[in-house]
């Protein structure tokens, strides 16, 4: 009798445990295969924990700025250098908005009267210090590496994200554009990048080198130039402006407010934070090649050198986002912004296979952004995810109809360049009428996860105006 009772009790306990595990797996955002492959890692993730905390994450230490960087900081906030006298670098790259615009305009306004509209959305200046130079060549093997858990435990956790090198022209299949600054990668250094908006007529519109040099000579901080470079720099306008741009670059490199790695995700990587249920589900969708497949381009794993992820592979894609009628330049039906092949860079204008490609931006602080994609056509993350979800399954939700009622997909590119648009990488491999890859709950969860990428979870403050 005792043995019988013991047997019944044992079977009951086993049954309850099995029922509990079955319920846990059923509610989990990870499928049975992932549980069987790595039960420990999957269990930890369902609890919102990183199963393999990074013990020595290589985060740049905060340190005192050099005199050069301090000079760059003063220049960064100096509106007097602009043609209007009212626009500084910080006007469009507000420290309180993750060094991005603090408004929801698709493109920013500048020029002498501050009413000239640009043609592209202004990106954030954060996390550019590790940007590689522009090149066209073989894909970086690290871009195809496993995600965080897989790198730690081989086939441990989530299904591998998928990305084809290119989806269309076979001649470009092994030649991947990558790196560089601006949406089209036309410059390689932060010093060169600073030169662009300074002299752009629709931005700071500073005029020419002589004009900027004259203003620098009358700036309150001109003594810093003399101390750093000697008095001779005052008599050489080109050198003076060049050193000013270099100082701006040093400010962005040395000041860790531009790359604080202070997000909840960074804390989670180190085992110092725990995801909510929604954040965990969003993380799973982000990495799942059958759903979001976001991590195929927005890499979320620590590098082999122990550097935190920047959430970009720095490669270029033609996504076919809809034309933005809010951009004045687009009122000209013959005008098209084709990224790598023009109009702002000219060296690749004959390379038709690259037309329509823009760099994949990093996603850190993306939840603070108010304009998305190169043309700022969307203003919420919900709209962005709807684009990925419905671009091919329900294009009438994404693109406007022409005068004949026809839905014109990829309408921000000339007809002959639309074959460059990615129709192979998930989720863009779906067909008209098919069920979208993400449910409404999936999209809400992805947004919750993206919010973990905002700086400030570990208090670090923001760069203050000098």
Descriptive tags:
mainly alpha, two-stranded antiparallel sheet, 2 domains, single chain, 466 residues, Cytochrome Bc1 Complex, Chain D, domain 2, disordered C terminus
Architecture overview:
The chain has 466 residues and is mainly α. It folds into two domains: 34-59 and 147-170 and 260-466, Cytochrome Bc1 Complex, Chain D, domain 2 (Orthogonal Bundle); 64-138 and 175-259, Cytochrome c-like domain (Cytochrome Bc1 Complex, Chain D, domain 2, Orthogonal Bundle), CATH 1.10.760. The protein has 14 helices and six strands. A two-stranded antiparallel ribbon has the order 1-2. A two-stranded antiparallel ribbon has the order 3-4. The longest helix has 26 residues, at 2-27. The termini are far apart. Residues 145-160, 166-172 and 460-466 have low confidence and may be disordered.
Q: What is the CATH class of the largest domain?
A: Mainly Alpha
CATH topology of the largest domain: Cytochrome Bc1 Complex, Chain D, domain 2
Number of strands: 6
The proportion of strand residues reads under 5%
What structural class do you assign from the helix and strand content? mainly alpha
Please give the share of residues in helix. 25-40%
What is the number of domains? 2
Oligomeric form of this entry? single chain
What is the N-to-C order of secondary-structure elements (H for helix, E for strand)? HHHHHEEEHEHHHHHHEEHH
Q: Give the overall shape, derived from the CA principal axes.
A: globular
Pfam families: CCP_MauG
Subcellular location: Cell envelope
EC number: 1.-.-.-
GO molecular function: cytochrome-c peroxidase activity; electron transfer activity; heme binding; metal ion binding
């Amino acid at each position: 009798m005792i043995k019988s009772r013991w047997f019944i009790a044992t079977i009951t306990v086993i049954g309850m445990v099995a029922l509990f595990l079955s319920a846990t797996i059923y509610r989990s955002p990870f499928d049975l295969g992932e549980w069987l492959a790595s039960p420990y890692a999957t269990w930890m993730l369902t609890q919102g924990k990183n199963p393999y905390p990074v013990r020595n994450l290589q985060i740049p230490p905060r340190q005192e700025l050099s005199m050069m960087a301090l000079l760059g900081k003063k220049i960064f906030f100096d509106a007097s250098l602009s043609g209007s006298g009212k626009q500084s670098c910080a006007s469009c790259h507000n420290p309180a908005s993750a060094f991005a615009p603090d408004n929801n305009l698709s493109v920013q306004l500048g020029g002498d009267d501050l009413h000239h509209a640009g043609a592209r959305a202004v990106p954030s200046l954060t996390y550019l210090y590790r940007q590689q130079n522009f090149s066209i060549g073989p894909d970086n093997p690290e871009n195809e590496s496993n995600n965080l858990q897989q790198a730690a435990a081989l086939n441990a956790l989530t299904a591998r994200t998928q990305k084809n090198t290119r989806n269309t022209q076979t001649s470009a299949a092994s030649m991947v554009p990558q790196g560089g600054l601006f949406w089209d990668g036309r410059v390689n250094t932060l010093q060169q990048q600073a030169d662009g908006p300074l002299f752009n007529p629709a931005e700071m519109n500073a005029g020419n080198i002589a004009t900027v040099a004259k203003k620098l000579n009358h700036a309150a901080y001109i003594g810093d130039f003399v101390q750093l470079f000697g008095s001779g720099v005052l008599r050489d306008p080109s050198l003076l402006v060049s050193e000013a741009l270099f100082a701006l670059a040093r400010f962005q490199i040395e000041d860790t407010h531009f790359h604080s790695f202070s997000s909840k995700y960074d804390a989670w990587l180190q085992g110092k934070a725990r995801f909510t249920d929604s954040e965990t589900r969003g993380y799973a969708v982000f990495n799942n090649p059958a759903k979001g497949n976001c991590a195929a381009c927005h890499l979320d794993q620590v590098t082999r050198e122990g550097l935190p992820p920047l959430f970009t592979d720095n490669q270029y894609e033609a996504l076919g986002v809809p034309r933005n009628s809010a951009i004045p330049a687009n009122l000209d039906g013959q005008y098209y912004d084709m990224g790598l092949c023009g109009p702002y860079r000219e060296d690749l204008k004959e390379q038709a296979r690259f037309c329509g490609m823009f760099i994949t931006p990093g996603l850190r602080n993306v939840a603070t952004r108010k304009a998305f994609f190169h043309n700022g056509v969307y203003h919420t993350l919900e709209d962005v995810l709807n684009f990925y979800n419905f671009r091919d399954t329900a294009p009438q939700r994404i693109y406007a109809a022409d005068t004949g009622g026809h839905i014109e997909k990829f309408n921000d590119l000339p007809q002959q360049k639309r074959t460059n648009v990615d129709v192979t990488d998930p989720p863009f491999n779906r067909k008209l009428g098919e069920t979208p890859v993400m449910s409404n709950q999936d999209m809400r969860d992805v947004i919750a996860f993206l919010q973990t990428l905002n700086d400030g979870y570990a208090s670090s403050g923001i760069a203050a105006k000098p």
